[in-house]
Fold this sequence. Notes:
Elements (H helix, E strand, L loop, with lengths): L12 H9 L5 E8 L3 E2 L1 H9 L3 E9 L3 E4 L9 E4 L1 H6 L1 H7 L4 E4 L3 H8 L5 E5 L1 H6 L3 E4 L9 E8 L9 E8 L6 H11 L4 E8 L7 E8 L5 H13 L2 E9 L12
Parallel strand pairs: 5-6, 5-7
Antiparallel strand pairs: 1-2, 1-9, 3-9, 4-7, 4-8, 10-12, 10-13, 11-12
Helix pairs in contact: 7-8
Amino acid sequence: FGHGVEPVSCSSIDEVFRTTESQQADFGIVPVENSSEGAVNRSLDLMLQSALVISAEVSLPVKHNLLSQSTQLETIAKVCAHPQALAQCAGWLDKHLPHAQRVPVSSNAEGARLASLSQDTAGIASELAAERYALNITRGSIQDDPHNRTRFAVIGRYACAASGMDQTSLILSVPDKAGAVHSLIEPLARHGVSMKRFESRPARQGTWEYYFYIDVLGHQNDAAVAAALDELRQRAAFIKIIGSYPRASDETDSRQKV
């Protein structure tokens, strides 16, 4: 976005969606997948419910820092962070803070905020969060996997034109019958559309019913993708396209940190 935008801080994924839907922000940025912990389920669930679409994605290396009011580990009795951050730093926490209580919260920003209110509480968050809440970086780079990356979706109200390097994200459900899941994949293969991701989530309104989150290479207006989508509309019990957008390049984003 460049330096001309005004950032709006949100304390949770839900708040990012609410702020963008209410037009208090033109775009929101939410995590959707981590290379070590997998899908960020709350983001997927909200994409099903929201009218917002994905306008872009970015893949970034993740650097987790332990933030607190102190510089000493001995003062920390509690660590607050998003469940994924706690999982991504579990080995380090086991070794260096084995007795500290681990408290899952709605976001790493919320964990940093809580750390700013209590001397015995730490958060796991970015250097930017440390600056915002006037916290010390008690320990830096505490993630267990040095190659850990997170894929973020830029959500908004604007559809993207084809760029030639796109992917399309969609959500589907299938009729409860034998071979139903195969019927989703077969048109993609027949039309030569490559599938990049296939994720299932409980539908919540029915027992053992699922929604499938699929990423395919190409724009929804590309001939092959459009033909495959037309067939999927006839086969699926439900289909929602949540965006066609330029896909992220790990190489071009490798110098940035979250």
